């Protein structure tokens, strides 16, 4: 039979199988569809060389990219399955079945997988293989064309009823698969809803009540002028707070069942419920959180007011072994972060087990019901969301999620600064030009920001920027503003910050992996007369 028909049969059957599997996944538990499962495993097993891609934007953009990549590979495998099945259906069946088995294995090995999770992948496998056999059989019954390219009785090929049935069935299967798959993606809730949503509302109400009873040590208020008009707001709205997570499916952690275990090299293990946490002294703290993969001038940095309990005294209560130099925290999704004990156990650093953000319970995407926040450490080695375990161990013994994938061990946060306005290639009227931006060096703080103007003659002239006030006791970024008098012409604007220790931000350009990026942010602008 024709190889083209075998390829068509395999593609159509695979689409139907994948679509059916995705629908089954939606019915069972969003995220357990075979495509989601494989995409999630791809991210989890990404080798160091491409790890950067996964970190930089595990936001929505890269999720879509990973899923699209999985679909392209799936289509190629299906085409191959058809191409090798010109004679018999067997090779293609095995290839499709093997692909299905991979998805089943992926579902079985996902961290926190439920017993039923492999079911949607099994459905996909069965549907694809069965459909492929049916279509292949149908295609084999299409009469071979004569030397003239007609049916044996002389009529044109397209009048073959079997051929029509084959084409119609293939089209129906393919279209059905696409509709089912798209429908499942469309119908999938973007966040764990229902029960978890209610639990979140309940926790917010409890935090409100505790605040009302004066049981939460309030953070200083944000001084007026902490942000400049036209610049970035001091407080990042929760909806705009940057987001990095390796899990394609957000963990749905029920706070009633949630436990935090403190274990490893400790004198006594601790296990806390959420009630235990809320009984401890609660504090609020303004913290700027940054991602190590933030590019120079990038926006993987945000600031909010976290509510939680101090981590240092909590861990001290477990009696950590002084030899344990690493605090390895684990998420419900299997992700891990290794922080230096010296920093986490230092009460002055103010590491938190946070349950709230911007006055409400943590949103699911930011770690509900609890996460870690360690001022001055990049998120990849400290900010474990959906945290369930804290193990005292050593860096020699255990490597965290991103260490294994080639990222550097935790280091101090680089001093960074960014121009927020004017925008890139902006055309601004001549006269006073207001340049605004932000700078951060947690926990050292920012003592100075300078704006450089690189004129047509190539000389950079630096001018001191005005620094905005920041809330007392915070470990945050600092907004700045600089008004320059620029005659018409083309300019490159630069900015550089000096941290609280008096060290000037390095201008040496370095891209993120394996550590944080360095270098000065710049903008080309035109001043028009
Ligand atoms: N469970 C889990 N926690 C995680 C991550 C993750 O992928 N999974 N990403 C970390 C990284 S790299 C950063 S920068 C911060 C980002 O926190 P946010 O998403 O709340 O901004 O979370 C950290 N905590
Ligand atoms: Mo990160």
From TrEMBL:
Keywords: Membrane, Signal, Transmembrane, Transmembrane helix
Source organism of the structure: Pseudonocardia nematodicida
Bilayer-spanning residue ranges: 66-86, 93-113, 119-135, 166-186
Name of the protein in its database record: Molybdopterin-dependent oxidoreductase
Gene3D superfamilies tied to this protein: 2.60.40.650, Oxidoreductase, molybdopterin-binding domain (3.90.420.10)
Chain ranges of the Oxidoreductase molybdopterin-binding domain: 249-401
Domain of life: Bacteria
PROSITE patterns the UniProt entry points to: TAT
Taxonomic lineage of the native organism: Bacteria, Bacillati, Actinomycetota, Actinomycetes, Pseudonocardiales
Signal peptide: 1-20
């Amino acid at each position: 039979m024709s190889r083209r028909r075998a390829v068509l049969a395999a593609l159509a059957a695979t689409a139907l199988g994948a679509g059916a599997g995705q629908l089954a996944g939606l019915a069972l538990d969003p995220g357990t569809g075979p495509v989601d499962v494989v995409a999630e495993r791809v991210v989890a097993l990404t080798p160091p060389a491409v790890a950067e891609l996964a970190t930089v934007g595990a936001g929505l953009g890269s999720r879509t990219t990973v899923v699209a990549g999985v679909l392209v590979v799936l289509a190629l495998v299906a085409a191959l399955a058809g191409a090798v099945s010109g004679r018999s259906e067997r090779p293609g069946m095995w290839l499709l079945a093997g692909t299905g088995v991979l998805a089943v294995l992926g579902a079985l090995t996902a961290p926190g997988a439920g017993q039923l999770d492999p079911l949607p992948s099994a459905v996909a496998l069965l549907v694809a293989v069965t459909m492929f056999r049916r279509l292949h059989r149908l295609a084999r019954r299409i009469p071979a064309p004569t030397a003239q390219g007609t049916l044996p009785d002389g009529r044109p090929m397209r009048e073959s009823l079997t051929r029509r049935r084959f084409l119609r069935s293939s089209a129906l299967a393919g279209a059905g698969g696409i509709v089912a798959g798209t429908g499942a993606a469309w119908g999938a809730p973007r966040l764990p809803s229902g029960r978890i949503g209610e639990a979140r509302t309940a926790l917010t109400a409890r935090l409100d009540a505790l605040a009302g009873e004066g049981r939460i040590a309030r953070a200083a208020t944000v001084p007026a002028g902490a942000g400049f008009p036209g610049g970035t707001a001091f407080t990042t709205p929760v909806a705009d707070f940057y987001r990095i997570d390796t899990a394609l499916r957000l963990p749905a952690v029920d706070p009633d069942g949630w436990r935090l275990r403190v274990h490893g090299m400790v004198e006594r293990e601790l296990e806390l419920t959420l009630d235990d946490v809320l009984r401890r002294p609660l504090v609020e703290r303004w913290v700027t959180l940054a991602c190590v993969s933030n590019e120079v001038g990038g926006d993987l940095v945000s600031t909010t007011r976290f509510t939680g309990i101090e981590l240092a005294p909590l861990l001290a209560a477990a009696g950590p072994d002084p030899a344990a130099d690493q605090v390895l925290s684990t998420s419900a999704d299997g992700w891990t972060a290794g922080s230096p004990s010296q920093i986490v156990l230092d009460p002055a650093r103010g590491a938190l087990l946070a349950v709230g953000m911007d006055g409400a319970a943590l949103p699911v995407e930011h770690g509900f019901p609890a996460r870690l926040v360690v001022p001055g450490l990049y998120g990849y080695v400290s900010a474990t969301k959906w945290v369930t375990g804290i193990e005292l161990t050593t860096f020699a013994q255990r490597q965290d999620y991103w260490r294994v994938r080639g990222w550097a061990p935790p280091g101090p946060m680089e001093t960074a600064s960014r121009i927020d306005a004017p925008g890139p290639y902006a055309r601004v009227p001549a006269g006073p030009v207001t340049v605004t931006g932000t700078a951060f060096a947690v926990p050292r703080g920012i003592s100075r920001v300078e704006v450089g103007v690189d004129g047509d003659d190539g000389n950079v002239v630096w001018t001191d920027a005005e620094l905005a006030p920041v809330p007392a006791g915070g470990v945050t970024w600092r907004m700045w503003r600089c008004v320059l008098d620029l005659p018409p012409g083309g300019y490159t604007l630069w900015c550089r910050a000096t941290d609280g220790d008096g060290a000037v931000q390095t201008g040496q350009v370095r891209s993120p992996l394996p550590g944080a990026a360095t270098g000065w942010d710049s903008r080309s602008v035109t001043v028009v007369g």
